[in-house]
Amino acid sequence: MSTPDNASTRKGFGSDAGSSQDKQRDPEKPGHEDTSSEEQANVGLHEFAVAKQSGLRVTREENRRIARKIDFYILPMLCMCQGLSFLDKTALNYGNLYGMKTALHLSGNQFSWFASIFYIGYVVGNYPDSWLLQHYPSGKVLAITTLIWGTIVITTPACTNFAGTMINRFFLGLLEAIVTPGMTILTSIWYAQNEVPFRSLIWYSFNGWAGIFGGFVAYGIGHIESPEIDLWKYIFLILGAISICFSVVLWFFFPDSPVEARFLTPEEKVLAVKRVAEAKLGVKNKTFKWYQIQHALIDPKTWLLFVASIAAQIPNGIVSNFSTIIIKGLGFTTLQSTLLDAASSGVQILSLLGAGYICMRFKNLRVITMALGNITCIIAAACLTYLPSDLKWNRLIAYWFTNFQSVGFALSLVMISNNVGGFTKKTFTTAVTFTGYCVGNIIGPHFLLDSEAPKYTTGTTAMFIGYIIKTVCHLALGAYMLWSNIKRDREQGKVVSQEDQLKGEEAGMHDLTEFENPYHRYVL
């Protein structure tokens, strides 16, 4: 419990020590901005000031009411964005089943480069896209990028050779780089800290829902009699058209933040900001701050998440682009492979929703849940690699359970939402994590060697090793955050009083990083 002495030793926003410290800070940090410019930069600061002056506390019923409204208006659009981006980037998977490789006259590992070049574009667009979300209205940025990437997808059938398709896939990755990193940031803008895990895993589960939808679309296309164009072209035309239509919805209906939400009353906007502020990480800041980049570069969390992302996405680079080929290699027909791949997406959905509910319902179980998901993948990859080839159903079930890989990665994004303060630092940490995501996805497809068909031993072994490395990184991340919490409690006292809580919230609303905010504690 905090004592007066402990409270007086806290250095940071809201204390006398912090006031003197602010005078020595870099000019770009809080304390050197006038009130009006700071309110413009820090989204929701005015609403937070109203809540503070009135001594407002959000009741459980108010919390639920606002969460339900956000769930109704915002969550479906987050889900659709994630699902459509997954469908559009993995349309390659279904195109491969219906002769895309032959139609483009590809040889050797050229088809694998279509998967890799997408993530090279993703690396290039990763941080610039996040910068756009930071500085401009989220709905408009998402709408424009969705319109452009939908156009790119719908023009893919016009590509007639390797070079043209490589260019097409590069720009698709460049535009789609806004989606999952952006959803990570936007979830922390709209939802209270305890709500973030479940909502994040709901929208991330739309990778699985999209996989099921894509499987049925591909199955239906396979039954077209006397097609006027190559079957693989239908996939890109249909999915591109859906994305273009959805961009119109984003333009008109997706607000920048709770402050701009037309579906919230003025009182509810204040409550919505206060809910998010309770995480002590702020809402959104529109000013780029170099010192927060420096904080991110020296933060062990940044690099543990980076390495874990590389390790996690090597298996993902194999599974997301070649799942139907792997299943077909187990001994199933082309049409059977499309349906059985949809079943693996069902496993992914159930694992994500179950993990999200556990992390919402029970406190500080994020790291443990990540580890359990990773261990499931290790066992599944071992079975897929080492079981005899004639046990095709056993190996298929093992393959399905590799979809638990999404649990660890999705919860690592929750770690960013819940544990990284300072909006520039949060966007940069997200960008570094997704750089690792891209590196893994670029490398992954090249472990699947045509010469090893149908068992693909090198590919499944790479999955097995990747899962082990990811597990070690996630456990190290949890150990570091636990040690940091214990160290802060010992040196500065525990955050138990309402006054300490309010000071922590105010520090977060002024865009301090978790390093600067002495009232912040990591959520495990």
Automatic annotation (TrEMBL):
<dbReference type="InterPro" id="IPR011701">
    <property type="entry name" value="MFS"/>
</dbReference>
<feature type="transmembrane region" description="Helical">
    <location>
        <begin position="339"/>
        <end position="360"/>
    </location>
</feature>
<dbReference type="GO" id="GO:0022857">
    <property type="term" value="F:transmembrane transporter activity"/>
</dbReference>
<feature type="transmembrane region" description="Helical">
    <location>
        <begin position="141"/>
        <end position="164"/>
    </location>
</feature>
<feature type="transmembrane region" description="Helical">
    <location>
        <begin position="428"/>
        <end position="449"/>
    </location>
</feature>
<feature type="transmembrane region" description="Helical">
    <location>
        <begin position="111"/>
        <end position="129"/>
    </location>
</feature>
<dbReference type="InterPro" id="IPR036259">
    <property type="entry name" value="MFS_trans_sf"/>
</dbReference>
<feature type="transmembrane region" description="Helical">
    <location>
        <begin position="461"/>
        <end position="483"/>
    </location>
</feature>
<keyword id="KW-0472">Membrane</keyword>
<dbReference type="GO" id="GO:0016020">
    <property type="term" value="C:membrane"/>
</dbReference>
<protein>
    <submittedName>
        <fullName>MFS general substrate transporter</fullName>
    </submittedName>
</protein>
<keyword id="KW-0813">Transport</keyword>
<dbReference type="Pfam" id="PF07690">
    <property type="entry name" value="MFS_1"/>
</dbReference>
<feature type="transmembrane region" description="Helical">
    <location>
        <begin position="234"/>
        <end position="254"/>
    </location>
</feature>
<feature type="transmembrane region" description="Helical">
    <location>
        <begin position="201"/>
        <end position="222"/>
    </location>
</feature>
<comment type="similarity">
    <text>Belongs to the major facilitator superfamily. Allantoate permease family.</text>
</comment>
<keyword id="KW-1133">Transmembrane helix</keyword>
<feature type="transmembrane region" description="Helical">
    <location>
        <begin position="399"/>
        <end position="416"/>
    </location>
</feature>
<keyword id="KW-0812">Transmembrane</keyword>
<feature type="transmembrane region" description="Helical">
    <location>
        <begin position="170"/>
        <end position="192"/>
    </location>
</feature>
<feature type="transmembrane region" description="Helical">
    <location>
        <begin position="367"/>
        <end position="387"/>
    </location>
</feature>
<feature type="compositionally biased region" description="Basic and acidic residues">
    <location>
        <begin position="22"/>
        <end position="35"/>
    </location>
</feature>
<feature type="region of interest" description="Disordered">
    <location>
        <begin position="1"/>
        <end position="40"/>
    </location>
</feature>
